[in-house]
Amino acid sequence: MSEQTSRMLAIARREARAQVSSGHLLLGALHPDGDDVLRRIDLDVDLDEIREHVRVLTDGPSDPHARLSARVKRVLTEHGSTRDVLVALLDDPESTAARALVRAGLDLTDLCERVSALSGKRKATKVARQLKYSDRQPF
Taking the chain, what is the end-to-end CA distance rounded to the nearest angstrom? Predict the structure, then answer.
């Protein structure tokens, strides 16, 4: 796990409730003390707005010693860099991260492509392909 990914996870733990979800990792990525990947792709988002969407989606009391969700464990095990972690989370339309971004009015397809391009992955992500051929929202 890279240093940036470790920082992202530490921030996610501070934001988490009963368990660290993909949404909490997203908050870690957005946080200025994290890797700040989404800011490097010029994504203009309000951290407090995203935080509120994540809180609604992961209702529960705050717990700095929260355990990792199965999705987060899998993604962190399979991907070392923050960019690759985000691509994996955003590639799953059912993830809290993807749902929080959609609730904030962001185009998930565009975001997936921008993060993928930043990480050097040029092929279309699973969610980009799915949204291209479907009008359903990833909720």
Answer: 29
Three-state SS at 46: coil
Determine the Cα–Cα distance for residues 9 and 56; give it in Å rounded to an integer: 20
Mind listing the pLDDT tens digit for each residue in 7-59? 888 888 777 766 788 888 888 888 877 766 766 777 777 888 888 888 888 87
CA angle 11, 80, 126 (to 5 degrees): 95
Return left, alpha or beta for 106; rule: phi > 0 is left, psi -120 to 50 is alpha, else beta: beta
- CB-hemisphere CA count at 13 Å for 107? 7
Q: How far apart are CA 136 and CA 130, in angstroms?
A: 9
Q: Distances from the Cα of 123 to the Cαs of 4, 36, 88, 112, 126, in angstroms?
A: 24, 23, 13, 10, 9
